[in-house]
Amino acid sequence: xxxxxxxxxxxxxxxxxxxxxxxxxxxxxxxxxxxxxxxxxxxxxxxxxxxxxxxxxxxxxxxxxxxxxxxxxxxxxxxxxxxxxxxxxxxxxxxxxxxxxxxxxxxxxxxxxxxxxxxxxxxxxxxxxxxxxxxxxxxxxxxxxxxxxxxxxxxxxxxxxxxxxxxxxxxxxxxxxxxxxxxxxxxxxxxxxxxxxxxxxxxxxxxxxxxxxxxxxxxxxxxxxxxxxxxxxxxxxxxxxxxxxxxxxxxxxxxxxxxxxxxxxxxxxxxxxxxxxxxxxxxxxxxxxxxxxxxxxxxxxxxxxxxxxxxxxxxxxxxxxxxxxxxxxxxxxxxxxxxxxxxxxxxxxxxxxxxxxxxxxxxxxxxxxxxxxxxxxxxxxxxxxxxxxxxxxxxxxxxxxxxxxxxxxxxxxxxxxxxxxxxxxxxxxxxxxxxxxxxxxxxxxxxxxxxxxxxxxxxxxxxxxxxxxxxxxxxxxxxxxxxxxxxxxxxxxxxxxxxxxxxxxxxxxxxxxxxxxxxxxxxxxxxxxxxxxxxxxxxxxxxxxxxxxxxxxxxxxxxxxxxxxxxxxxxxxxxxxxxxxxxxxxxxxxxxxxxxxxxxxxxxxxxxxxxxxxxxxxxxxxxxxxxxxxxxxxxxxxxxxxxxxxxxxxxxxxxxxxxxxxxxxxxxxxxxxxxxx
Length: 677
Fold this sequence. Notes:
Layout: H1 22-27, H2 31-45, E1 49-52, H3 69-74, E2 82-86, E3 90-94, H4 99-105, E4 112-115, H5 124-131, E5 136-139, H6 146-155, E6 160-163, H7 168-173, E7 186-187, H8 190-193, H9 197-210, E8 213-218, H10 221-228, E9 230-231, E10 244-247, E11 252-255, H11 263-271, E12 274-277, H12 282-291, E13 298-301, H13 307-315, E14 331-333, H14 337-343, H15 347-377, H16 385-397, E15 402-405, E16 410-413, E17 436-441, E18 443-445, E19 448-449, E20 452-457, H17 463-480, E21 483-484, H18 490-493, H19 499-502, E22 513-515, E23 524-529, H20 535-539, E24 547-550, E25 553-556, E26 560-563, E27 566-572, E28 585-589, H21 607-634, H22 644-653, H23 662-676
Parallel strand pairs: 1-5, 3-4, 5-6, 8-13, 11-12, 13-14
Antiparallel strand pairs: 1-2, 2-3, 7-9, 8-10, 10-11, 15-18, 16-17, 17-20, 18-19, 21-28, 22-23, 24-27, 25-26, 27-28
Helix pairs in contact: 12-13, 15-16, 15-21, 15-22, 21-22
């Protein structure tokens, strides 16, 4: 839950203060007990294979606790993965970000980890085909996307795929399953949104007319929130709420339980002629609407739309149009125009995002200044991964407009950092030690969303650690400095962030960049920078106003992890020439947090790279010091804010890098020899 501005920091539960939390619910029953009950239900429903995905009915990456079905049944709570249960086996597929985490969380006596992307790991479909000859595969139509069903049917041509009404994990979870969230829905100010709902609808309806679509069904929660300039807190860390929207040439309807709407939200919807219907009425209304389609009319939904929506639409069609399969003439499966419009931030949204990052920079300057002082005094050794994460959140909570973290803070000491999406748990986390410390955290502010990673050393780094760290920095700089032509796609740039690591025989098992919303999801599509993107994400060109992360890394299993992450936005750039009349593009950093200078091996940086770091640090210093000074000036009452210690830390942390002279290098080597002796 996103707490109101000024609320105290909270633990990582979407139901703060409630008991038990999701982690406790997952552990209440053993793997054997849960699998036994699930298999009983599978037998009753006539299936011998059951697929449990991660997503909810809106295909959300982050889900409410009640929708954490895969986490509940398997024990693995990473944000990506698919569980498969047969009558005698249970398997979990996940990618390289989560291999170590899954190995730790799965009960190895009952679950097998399938490492997606490795040469010897079959796909889920191939495994079913080869291991269950008489497979009847059960799926939940509300949590299975249209594209997901197509993939299953395409690769399991000789098997039966059976949609089952009522999720079997829900049935086995029973009374312990958390309730459906029903938090207030509030207005996102138009001065921050930049455009009102009527203006946004005009552009969408123009696209619908071009595509000869009579109806669009919006199922993604962030698209609903963006279109209506509303926000909520149904999903932890994400300011969204459970709702669908239907759009026709003349009408727009939100399907959302009306008692949740604040008076201001209700008034805003009425102002823009948005009708309100109960959340549960969607499927019946879709059937009625599809029955009224013109002979040539089509329905626009995304590939990620759930199967239940398509089934409801099909039910209203006459027999002639109800063809099914890939050749549906009535259904257009494409990203909605909302996805791209939301990704390309307007001037007002970018101004808000910059404001959020400046606030975030002040919070992190306070944290890292405190951290360095605590290392110096020895107080840091009383801390652990959880308390460090709480301190970061406490510093952010001091900033006006802070609504909560934008994702569970990754606070990783030493070997924990090698688990790419590690999440510390109270009572089961490492204490601070003089080793590498990776902090990946972000904030939801009323003005925008932040996501930043810094890896620092709390002691004396080894040469190997500094070399690895610097090569990650070189990749970060290479992508930051990139100038590229219009229509360049994210996957085309990914190698820039890896080349320095490749030259050293190193790499990382995750993408380099993901899109980020404006006071919305911290992971936003369709744009991204990764060699693994598929479909529309791979084909979406980077364009002005888009925000992506720049986060190369390296992970040394059992020892440490390194990741350096800024958020960057795409902008036009002046170039000496303009081949083909094109206006070229570049990145502008939004994040304003220093890099730890002692981790930089200057011998590995070019003069141009040193110049880039110095220019970046100068901007960080000027911006953050100005904010800190303004904070002091505003504190005319008691107690007075004194930021002198933080400013002193900031100036030292952003001091220019200079190459040592030859004499200085000789002196340094002599000192290192004496120290080693």
